[in-house]
Amino acid sequence: MFVEVYERLKRKGLRKVLKLIKNNNDMPMQFERSTGKRKGIFKYLKTIVLICYALHFFNEILIYLPKRLAETDEFSIVSCVGLEPISESPNKEICKALLTIQLFGAMVVVVSYDTTFLFLFGYTASMFSILREEIMSLDVRDEDTERQEVVETVENRLKNIVNRHSLTLHTVENIQNIYNFSIGVSVGEDAITMCLFFVMPLNVSLNFIPLLIHDFLAFFLYCYQGQKITTAAERFEMEVYSCGWENFGVKEQKMILTMLRQSQKPVIINAASVVPICIYTFACTMQSIYKFGAAFKS
């Protein structure tokens, strides 16, 4: 019952995040280069998603699944209860078919989770980059006569940027709510798996290489994407301060001040509301795992 309610809340939260992204994406881009960059972002995200699917296919379909099916004769399988003996035909073929369907379904769930995570994090970091470019385009000096038309419409452009920045911050907040617990569990599981890999005998560890590759890549991607959001938000904050606000009117300066106050709040995704998801966390964890393995084998 608890799991069902939890999953419903997460699906509701994911739909809310996608709605925020759609609203943000539907708002007009005020800087001409931003439209082209947005197309490049979607192309980049599409490439990342396809690479993620390819890695999962190679790791789980070509490596893990054949090895798992080859070991059906060595131990009992829950999916094949009632088909004994599974070493004889046609029970053996039926058991392998059931196991393939089960493992394929699990793979689809995992890869969908990972690709959704990559898309949400990558898109959010990219929106900070687009906002950064647009706020930079507001830095127009009085002597720049060719852009006086831009100065006259700076209020409308600022309203647009402020609204999209607010939507982006709400997106980050909702992503934190969705992935808070699951990332904490995943990061802890990945760390434990890598620790066990380095303390087990080599001949045993080699059997778990597909699992190690998945856990390592997932942990790195979590930290890398979290770091991208934090870095993009910090760069946007610096550009807000240096956007030439001293040349704006009082009303526009107040809007800049409001946006600056919002952007000064650290944008950090935490695992289990405790561990920040960033490259520093990845480096410290890898160092700790290495020290643990070295101390255990010494």
TrEMBL record:
UniProt keywords, alphabetically: Cell membrane, Membrane, Olfaction, Receptor, Sensory transduction, Transducer, Transmembrane, Transmembrane helix
UniProt gene name: LOC106126980
GO terms classed as biological process: signal transduction
GO cellular component: plasma membrane
Transmembrane segments: 44-65, 97-123, 178-200, 206-224, 267-290
Cell compartment(s), UniProt: Cell membrane
Protein species of origin: Papilio xuthus
GO MF, any single term: odorant binding
Topology within the bilayer: Multi-pass membrane protein
Annotated protein name in UniProt: Odorant receptor 10a-like
